[in-house]
Structure formats: C-alpha cells, structure tokens
Amino acid sequence: MYCSELGDQWHAARVEPSLAHLDAASAGRSSRAVIATITRHLEREAERGSYVAAADEEDALVAGRRALASLIGHTPEELSFRDSARTSLRALLNSWALPMSPTVWVAKNEFGPNLAEFERRDFAVRVLPEADVYGHVDVDSLENMLQFEQPDFIHVCHIGSASGVVQPVAQIVEVAHSVGVPVVVDMAQSVGHVPTVTGADVVYGTSRKWLTGPRGVGFVAVRSDSLAKVEVESSDSFIAGQLGLGTAVTELLEIGQQKVFRELAAIGKATRERLRGVGSWEVVEANDEPSALVTLATPPGWGVADLEAARAKLLETGILVTAADSWRAPLAGDQPHLRVSPHLDVRSEQLDALATTIRTMGY
Ligand SMILES: *Cc1c(COP(=O)(O)O)cnc(C)c1O
C-alpha cells in the first residue's frame, strides 16, 4: 500500500524500480517524461547540431527557467545553471568580492564540503546557537547576536545532508535583513521537498535529489536587490539536462507543490513512526519534523565500517538507503547515521521490510 495518495501517480510516471528506492536525498528517480525530454534533445543535437537544437528549444528553456524560478521565489533572469550544487557555491564564492578573511555564520547542520570551501578561502566560521536538541537555529538568540556583531553573510543549509531538520530560513532572513546581513541558502535537500520561497539573497541547489531531475544540473539564483553584490555566470553546456529539469519542475507544479510538500512531510512522519524503537537504532528527528529525510543513529559501539556493511546488506535484500558518515555534517558530531529518504511512491511494505531487516542488526 502506498503511504501517500500521490503514490500511485508518482509510481506510474516512472519506470518500475528493481528495489525499494528509499534514497531521494542522494538522487531521486526521474520520471519517464524527464528521461524522454533529455533523450529527445540529445537526438536533436545529433540531427541539427547542438547550437541549432538549443535555439530551437528556446521556448522550453524559458518555460523551465520560469517554473524553477517560481518554486524558489526568484525571477527567471536571476537564475544561473551550473552542473551541481557544489559548483554553484564555488561559482558564487569565486565571483563575490568579499573582504579579506570574511566571517560567515552557519548552522549546526552545515554540509561538510561547504565548510571545506569556506576554510579553503580562509573564512572565519561561527556556529549559530540552537533552539533545541535537534539543531534548529535559535532565531531569537541570532537576532540578539546581530545587534552586537554582523558577519559578512549567513549561510544556511535549509535541510542538511545528515538530518531531516528544516531550518527556519524565512525567519533567519527577516532578522538578518533588519541589520543588513545577506543570507545564502543551500537548497540541495530542500528544493522540491519543502516550501522554498524564503526571501534569501542567494539560493542554490541541485536537480537530481527531491526534484527528481537529471544528475549533472545545479542552479544558483541571486536576487536583483540582493544585499550580496555578486553576479554568477551560467555554464550552459548540458542543455538536455536543463530541459529535463524543466520537465521535472513542471510535473511537480502540475501536481501542486503544496500538496507534494504536505505528502512528503506525512511520509517522513510515517517513516519515523515505523522505525522508532526498532532494535537499538535511534530515530534522530522528532516525528513531525516536516521533511521526508529520516536519519537513524547507529546502535551503540558501531563504527563507519559496520554502517557500510549494513547498507550493503540492505542493498542485497533490495533496499536502497545511504550510509551517512559524519563528514556530511561535521559540526553535529561524529555519529554516523543510516539515512532513509523515501519519495512519494514509498509503500508501507517497504518500510516494514526495512524495519525487519535492521531489527536484526546490532543490539
Ligand atoms: C547533496 C548536497 C550538496 C551537493 O550537491 P551536488 O549537486 O552533489 O554538488 C550540497 N549540500 C547539501 C546539503 C547536500 O545534501
């Protein structure tokens, strides 16, 4: 039985999976329409030449740009395409004329590779105060801190890679803007998953995760009235991928974005309820955290190798999840997690099978 009323529709739009795909946070399953868009364009490139084919598809490119821009609360002109979220962040940091050794404030769920980008450029990184044990940013404390000191910018992972916590980005933007501090948001795990109209100055993300667009496309958008004075150039090479992403976003908007977000939150809740108390695994998020990214802390005494082995064993039994090592969120500690990230086509039998398999692992 599908866990969501959208399950049947989402499933019917895709090729039959050969396993229980509970790994949208790594890469979602593209629809047949997305795959057809890409392959059709690749064929046209061979028939007519890549540049002629791209010019022929100008209307579709504009429509895809408009759809994605509306999802993230930007205008189509503000959007640039890169080939991943990581290269989007790099493009942003490389083009931004920041002072020497700038200061950036980040949340506890910051993505490890982003921290590496900051460290490489000699940024001073400070961690924002938390409101609770889950690591949500404490917006009131932030507002206080900002009265005394202002960083060059605040960088937030809307949702991190190793926890389903959804950061209160719109509130963070509000208090930061009241003192003139720009906010940059990593939307790699949030776009297509939770509401992403936040008012942030700069946002960036990736096509292949919750949007279920193709791998190899990322985007960055800078508001025209951004407090961050920076322009990012597009790297317009993978036109078929941009068209495929456009199809994916259009499909999402046709279902209704709010409906998708509501259903994904309900799926996250059902998943956490099903997995809580199974063996000596521990569900990290509160059940009603409004995301479908679910993490389980490993049984006591487990190292990364045990987790990798568990992930491999699950894959052998036909269940795809992530072994999330601590490099993904180094500020949150060194505990590795099993990451379970079902999309709309998850079935309750798949969650039962996952629970049954991990119950026998570790005591
Ligand atoms: C996956 C991920 C990224 C990187 O995305 P790529 O497109 O692989 O570069 C960045 N931030 C977070 C939080 C992620 O989960």
Automatic annotation (TrEMBL):
The keyword Transferase applies. GO terms for molecular function: transaminase activity. SUPFAM superfamilies: PLP-dependent transferases. It holds the Pfam family Aminotran_5. Its cofactor is pyridoxal 5'-phosphate. Residues 22-230 form the Aminotransferase class V domain. Keywords: Aminotransferase, Pyridoxal phosphate, Transferase. This is Aminotransferase class V-fold PLP-dependent enzyme.
